[in-house]
Structures are given as structure tokens and as C-alpha cells.
Amino acid sequence: MENDGKRRAFLKVLGLGSVSLGTAGYSVALGTGKAEKKPHYGMIFDQNKCVGCTDCEVACRKVNEVPEGQVRLYVENKTDPSTPMDKKYVRVSCQQCEDAPCVAVCPSKACHRDVKTGIVTMNPDDCIACKYCIVACPYDVRFINHKTKAAENCNFCLNTNLAKGKEPACVESCKYKALVFGDLNDENAYINQILHVKDHVRMKPTYGTKPSLRYIPVVKVGV
Amino acid sequence: MNGAINYTYGFSHGVEWGWPIAVYLLLAGISGGALIVALLVRFYKKQQVDTPLLKAASLVSFVTIALGMVFLVGDLEKPLYFWKILIHYNFTSVMSIGVMAISIYIPLSLIMCFYLFEKEISVVLAKKSQLLGYFEMVMVLLKKIRPMIEVLSVVFAVVICAYTGFLISVLVRFPILNTAILPALFVVSGLSAGTASASMVASYLFKEDTHSSDLKTLHVIEWPIMAVEIMLIAMLFVSLLVGNEFQQTTTVAFQSGVYANLFWFGVMGVGFGLPLVLNFALGKHVAHSHMAFYLSGMASVLGVLCLRMFIIYAGQTFSI
User: Fold this and answer.
1) Minimum mean pLDDT among A5-19, B15-29, B127-141, B276-290: which range?
2) Which residues of B touch A (CB under 8 A)?
3) What are the tens digits of pLDDT across the range B66-77?
4) d(C-alpha B268, C-alpha B262), whole Å
5) CB neighbour list of residue B226: distance below 8 Å, 6 or more residues apart
6) Are B160 and B91 contacting, i.e. CB atoms less than 8 angstroms apart?
7) Distance of alpha carbon A32 from alpha carbon A30, whole angstroms
8) Looking at beta carbons, which pairs linking A56-59 to residues 24 or more positions away fall under 8 Å?
């Protein structure tokens, strides 16, 4: 009998506890749900649509004032020589990693994640050009700008087009809609709608850097 | 890699960190290695007097690390902005951690020089009596903490040697560099270059007899250090050989081309072969000569330079 009373009390506490904790937890969850999610900008390169016209390259160099002979963005021709009619191009540019090695290794914090947008970008004044970020990047898509003598990468036109509320220059200039830019944290964004329905890959996923660039490869049925 | 889509084009176009960095890595290795062996000999033999070996090692370690800084800063594209690195620290960056270690290590090696060249510095300062007064005042304070400074110097000397290895072993794109063995290899090869430099300077500048008790001790430990170095290099090679597809392709660096020559003639031939031949193959008469002493010492240092060059250049040439 004595035990019974204890058990009842225990169950009561358990019940009350779980109810109160549950509501508390739920309200906390609601609270965070309401708080504005930080953006996570990403980009899709669709190999099915790219024709290799390099309009994106030209636009990027113009908008971001990249010096002659240098690029932030390059379209590499990856057409198989044995099937020259099946053209294949691939975008080479900063992959905007979520765990970016360049940000991790930069000794002067010049290479950093922009506070508002989360985009990996540079503060050229703080860069001492030690080239550590360049050798640390698994994708080899960073370089020293000949004019500013600072390291540089594609930052989705953060200081140029994005600052003016426009899409990145490459996306804007692409006649074939091979590039899509948007906020991956926004469920309703067009970029997410595409990612839901299309197969896509990340470049060199084994490095665990979680690139924000997604590639939709050409897939030919029956080949 | 993922065969569906990939690219081969990169923006760096070749070796980004060139020979100045290799020379810096050598100098940092010599600096750390010299101080480590000389102080360990002192601790082991419980020496109270300042030996020519310790004198030489202190001088060598300070001069090499200071010279190393020249190469390091000189390699920056914006060398005049190097101070930015001293005011912005990023604790996830090996380079930042290294800078912190260096800014402790350089004063330590300078203080070691103060201890061992107190008389010489006093003579120089004697003309300016005010400066001499300050110097003597500082030395009174410093002398009280000498045992602590010596222990700290050994610790930071190891940190300096090891950090240079970690600095480049975090570069995931390069299979030869991205190995756990590299920091250990850099500590051990630093020891061998440091031993050689310190004993040569002790004999040449401070007239230590090449058969003195200290240099004999160094001569005895030289060979085990060399053996461990060869073992670590072999481990590095085997780890690439049994690794994944990309690691396996990099073993070409050891087998053919200019880097293979650098490795076999420079590292193996000059660094290991020449000292071995001079000391063991040509009889006691040659082995005990001054010529053999200096030649094998210089060969050791040159071999370690070749090793650093090989690691830096071959490492960055073979990328994924």
C-alpha cells in the first residue's frame, strides 16, 4: 500500500513534468520558428543548359573589375573528344563552402563570412597575400588579384550586384538559364523548387566542406 | 571523383608556395633543432657552465629564425602589411598559432643569446655606459629565471619545428602534404639539420674540439636521428602507395622526373649517403678528419634543404 502511494506520486510528477516540459519545449520551438532564418545563398549550374558561350565570364569580369588575364569564374569545356557533338561545360568558381577551409586558415581574418549574408568573401585591406587560402582550397578557385594584391574569390557579386539588389552578374547574363541563384534557407525560393525535382551533385563532397554550389549533370538515357 | 561532372581547371596555376617557404622551413627546423639538442645535452649531462655547444646553438637558433622571418615576410605579396597578422588572430589557422609561437620563441632564443654572450654584449655596450647599466639590470632579473627560460625554449623549439609541418599538412588538396607524418618528419629532420649546424658553428667559431665530449654525444645521436628520418620518409611513401587512387598517383614524384632526382640525389645521396660514406666507408683516418666533419655537416643541412624543397614542390605539383 505504501508503495502504491509512492508510485502514484511518482507518476503524477512524471505526468506533470512531461506536460510542462513539453509545452515549454513547444513554445521554444515556436519561438525559434518565428525568428528570421539567416540566408544561405547557393547557386545551381545546369550542365544540360550551358552551351559554353562564356557570357557569364565576361559579365563577371566587367562587374567585379577583375584584372586582364584573371577570372573569378571560368567555364571549362569538358567535352569528351570521342563524342565531339555531345558538348559538356562545367562552371569553375568558388563553391561557397559551408565549412570553408579558406576562412579557417586565413591568419588575418581577411577571408571571412559576411555577417549578414553568410557569403564567403574578402576584406582586401586585411589580406597580406600569404596565399594560405589558395593552397588550402580543395577546389583551387582562389587567386591573388594582380591589381589589389589581395586574394579573391567569387562572392556572388556581394559588393556589386547583390548590394544593388540585383542577381549575380553571371546569373543575370545567362541567356540559357543555366544558372540559378537563391536562398537555400527559403523553402519557397525557386532554387529549392529546382533542387526538389532535379538530381544534383556537389563537387568533391568527400572533403566535407559542404559546398553551396550544386551541379545538375548531363544524364543521357541509354548511353 | 564523381565521374558525372568535374573540372580540371584551377586558378592557382602551379606552385603557390615556392622556394622562400622551403628555405624558411629549413631555417625554422635548424633553429628549433639546434636549441633542442644543445639544451637536452645540457640537461642530460647536468652542465652548469656555458659550453661552446650551447653558445653555438643559441647563436644559430636566433640567427636562423630571424633570417627565416625575412624569407617568410618576403614571400608575401604585400610584405609591408605583415603586421596585420599580428593584430588579427584566427585560432583555427595553423599560421596564426605559428605566429603566436614564433613571437614567443624569438624572444626566448634572444634571451638564450643574452645568457651566453653576456660578456661579449657588455664589451660592445661598454662605450655607452647608460645602455650597459640597463643591460646589467635586465640580466640580473633574467638570470633568476634561467632554468625556466631553458625549459620553455626546448618546448617552444619543438612547437616551432612541429608547426611548420602542421602548416602544410592541413592542405587537403595535396596528398603528399596532407599526411599525419609530416610534422614528425619536420621535427626529426630539423633535429638533424640543427645538430649539424650547431656542431659546425661550435667547432668553427667557438673552437670546440671536434672530438670533445659534447660533440661526441651529438655524433652518437646523429645516426639514430637519421635512421628515424629515413623510417618516416619510408612511412610517408608507403602511406601514399597503399592509399587511395590520388595518393597512389603521387608516388610518381619519388619515381621519375626532376623531383625524383631531387629526392634521390639530394635527400638520399647528399643528405644520408655522403655523411655515411665519409664516416664509415673510408676508414678511421678520413672519418676523424676536419674535412669529413664539416663536409658531412654541410651535407646533412643540404639534404634537409632538399627534403623541404621536395616536399614543397612535389607536394604542390601533385594535386587532386
Assistant:
1) A5-19
2) 1-2, 4-12, 16-17, 75-78, 81-82, 84-85, 88-90, 92-96, 99, 168, 170-174, 316, 319-320
3) 999 999 999 998
4) 9
5) B192, B272, B275
6) no
7) 6
8) A56/A91, A56/A169, A56/A170, A56/A171, A56/A173, A56/A174, A56/A179, A57/A170, A58/A173, A59/A169, A59/A170, A59/A172, A59/A173
**For the complex shown, is ipTM > 0.85?**
yes
Give the Cα separation of B183 and B161 in Å (integer): 8
How far apart, in whole angstroms, are the C-alpha atoms of residue B70 and residue B144? 32
A184 neighbors A172 (Cβ within 8 angstroms): no
A149 touches chain B (CB under 8 A): yes
Tens digits of per-residue pLDDT, B24-47? 999 999 999 999 999 999 999 999
How distant is the Cα of B174 from the closest Cα of chain A, in angstroms? 9
Q: What is the largest CA-CA distance in chain B?
A: 77
Residues A135, B96: C-beta atoms closer than 8 Å: no
- What is the pLDDT at residue B1? 41
Q: What is the pTM of this model?
A: 0.87
Q: How many of the other CB atoms lie within 10 Å of CB of B150?
A: 20
- The answer to whether A64 and A143 have CB atoms below 8 angstroms apart is no
Question: Is-contact B59 B201, C-beta < 8 A?
Answer: yes
Using an 8 Å CB-CB cutoff, list chain B residues near A137: 173
pLDDT > 70? residue B109: yes
Quote the CA–CA distance of A170 and A45 in Å, as a whole number: 11
pLDDT of residue A221: 61
Per-10-residue mean pLDDT for chain A, 223 residues long? 64 64 58 68 95 95 94 94 90 96 95 95 94 95 94 95 95 96 94 94 91 90 55
- State mean pLDDT over B257-265: 95
Q: Got the DSSP string for A147-205?
A: TT-SEE---TTTTTTGGGTPPPHHHHH-TT--EEEEETT-TTSHHHHHHHHS--B-SSG
